[in-house]
UniProtKB/TrEMBL annotation:
<dbReference type="InterPro" id="IPR000794">
    <property type="entry name" value="Beta-ketoacyl_synthase"/>
</dbReference>
<keyword id="KW-0808">Transferase</keyword>
<dbReference type="GO" id="GO:0005829">
    <property type="term" value="C:cytosol"/>
</dbReference>
<comment type="similarity">
    <text>Belongs to the thiolase-like superfamily. Beta-ketoacyl-ACP synthases family.</text>
</comment>
<dbReference type="InterPro" id="IPR014031">
    <property type="entry name" value="Ketoacyl_synth_C"/>
</dbReference>
<dbReference type="Pfam" id="PF00109">
    <property type="entry name" value="ketoacyl-synt"/>
</dbReference>
<dbReference type="InterPro" id="IPR020841">
    <property type="entry name" value="PKS_Beta-ketoAc_synthase_dom"/>
</dbReference>
<dbReference type="InterPro" id="IPR014030">
    <property type="entry name" value="Ketoacyl_synth_N"/>
</dbReference>
<dbReference type="GO" id="GO:0004315">
    <property type="term" value="F:3-oxoacyl-[acyl-carrier-protein] synthase activity"/>
</dbReference>
<dbReference type="InterPro" id="IPR016039">
    <property type="entry name" value="Thiolase-like"/>
</dbReference>
<comment type="pathway">
    <text>Lipid metabolism; fatty acid biosynthesis.</text>
</comment>
<protein>
    <submittedName>
        <fullName>Beta-ketoacyl-ACP synthase</fullName>
    </submittedName>
</protein>
<dbReference type="Pfam" id="PF02801">
    <property type="entry name" value="Ketoacyl-synt_C"/>
</dbReference>
<dbReference type="InterPro" id="IPR018201">
    <property type="entry name" value="Ketoacyl_synth_AS"/>
</dbReference>
<feature type="domain" description="Ketosynthase family 3 (KS3)">
    <location>
        <begin position="8"/>
        <end position="418"/>
    </location>
</feature>
<dbReference type="GO" id="GO:0006633">
    <property type="term" value="P:fatty acid biosynthetic process"/>
</dbReference>
Amino acid sequence: MSKDRYGRQTVVVTGIGVVTALGVGKTENWQALTAGRSGIHAITRFPVDQLSTRISGMVDFLPSSKVGASALTDELAETAGREALSQAGIGDDLGGPLFLAAPPVELDWHRRFELYRDGRPGQEGYERLLGVARDYKTPKAYEETQFGVIAERLADLFGARGLPVTLSTACASGATAIQLGVEAIRRGECDRALAIGADGSATAEALIRFSLLSALSTQNDPPEKASKPFSKDRDGFVISEGSAALVLESLESAKARGAEILGVISGCGEKADDFHRTRSKPDGSPAIAAVKAALADAGMDAGEIAYINAHGTSTPENDKMEHLSLSTVFGERMRSIPISSNKSMIGHTLSAAGAIEAAFSLMTMREGVIPPTINYDNPDPAIDLDVVPNVKREADVASVLSNSFGFGGQNTCLVMSREPV
């Protein structure tokens, strides 16, 4: 059936691309993830002697990692996008819209210093800095201040149609990009779309900002043990980088061209949380509403979910809130549903997290293997969950709920299925 139970186009995935601190490509990432290997390591990109947090899941093996956040985000997005388009068999002729989840743009520090050298103190100096940024002699510096420039370049490179959309909804960004692609296909605006989540913004400034919020783990030694979602001794997330891309396509279009179907995006749900600029509402009501909205959009009930890819950041508050939210929706069954956090191995990839975890969720169904939650050596008695502790698990998984609960009240959940529902 090319239509879902609501009479909308069924949206399937025909291509996946992934880059994380574990490596480049979905094959390398999946092997490491299911082996329980961590990509968290000591920071070498900038001095950390005076910092409380000295570890990350930075992607240091791409050339642009030495250039700056904008350049690295661009390379991460392109690398994942190319892999996804190649698997989908459409090369650089997407023929549909591009939705890119990316971090808020800030001028890279080496560019700031470059501009400062050309400026003078006071208002006159400020105006001079802006002038230099716009000057034809420094077009690259000017481009780095424009939020949509990466998507525009990728749209040309990949043969996208229409104006590319760049969005930033905090930790939910990657999932939101997928949701926008799904909705565009359902509305009949296109046969296929490319959704990418990319984030190369693990800069010194970002590290300091999150540290000031007491959000980061300070358990630096050994680095690979720092991210421990749902454990009693968790103390914060590990800032990381990465990217994932999904080629989304109507089932009708995919079948017509003989494409391999990798899974189905059955439902999307979102709910805003206005409680606090960083903290989640203690009663979990927005997260509960986002989960319920995703299930309703898929036309499924909670009893049909076989596995949950947790947001699972390893912060004391988020893990507790996620447990409360899921227990409210799933009731006593929550104790027996496997739920694991990829962030235990790759850290928190911020704007890219929702897309990366969606990619891994699709691979879980496809491969029949649930990645573990590693570093689960000290269970939290207040969080009674089957977290697939430390070792992967073979399982027949027909449906997945993937959660993304972000700073600023951005909550997006995806329901994915192995077959159309």
